Amino acid sequence: MESAARVRAWRAVLALCGLMLLGSAADLRAGTLLSPGAGVLVRKSAEPFGVFAFPVSSGGLRQKWFALKEQLDDDMVQLALCDGDRDHCASPAALKLLAIVDQVRTRDGRARLGETNRAINLAIRAESDGAEDVWSSPLKTFARGAGDCEDYAIAKLAALRLAGVADEDLRIVVVRDARAGEEHAVIAARLDGHWLMLDNRRMAMVADDEARSYQPLFVLYQSAVLRYVGEPVQFSMVIPGGH
Fold first, then answer.
1. Would you kindly state where each structural domain of the chain is located, as residue ranges?
2. Residue 62, exposed/middle/buried by CB under 10 A (0-12, 13-18, 19+)?
3. I need a labelling partner for 154 at 20 to 30 A (CA). Which of 46, 93, 124, 226 fits?
4. CATH architecture, domain defined by 49-228
5. What is the rounded distance in angstroms from the CA atom of residue 73 to the CA atom of residue 75?
């Protein structure tokens, strides 16, 4: 009896130590814990690139995103109306985008994402809007037939939503392209727990951990702008008898 009581006591102590080291269940839901080696845990964000991101409450990018989001919401309403009644749709831009969505809807999984990336890359002519850097809604971009990186990303966001991809699986990510020496915007789409980059600079999609020349700066998600901060968090565990 005394031996059994001691075993139960030690189990309780070990369980308590585990909770102290790993944090609460709510904390764990915000990221994942990886173990790259003995005695080391890496806390990894669930956001694209695995780096933690925190909300920003002010700044030019936030203002630009929220202004664009109002236009995007209006476009989504018009696209939904045109989708339900193509014959009476008065917007050639909406019909052109919906033709792409029709093709995307015939695909599933990775093929659905790849078709969106390929079709919109081909439908829009790459054209910089210069120092003004105007973020255009999907219908404005398709009416113009041209845009820069964020315009491609915004159009892909709209197309994927219309094709049935859940909002929580989509992000616009602003990165620093080390090769080009400039900022760039892409769509990140989550598939089977992994983030794929839909990029107007390439037809083939790559996973976030394969986009080595991209340093993530900001992530735009529904009604939030998040700033990436630092690297995945690492901390050491002292393991008795470990070497």
1. 2-48+230-236, 49-228
2. middle
3. 46
4. Roll (3.10)
5. 5
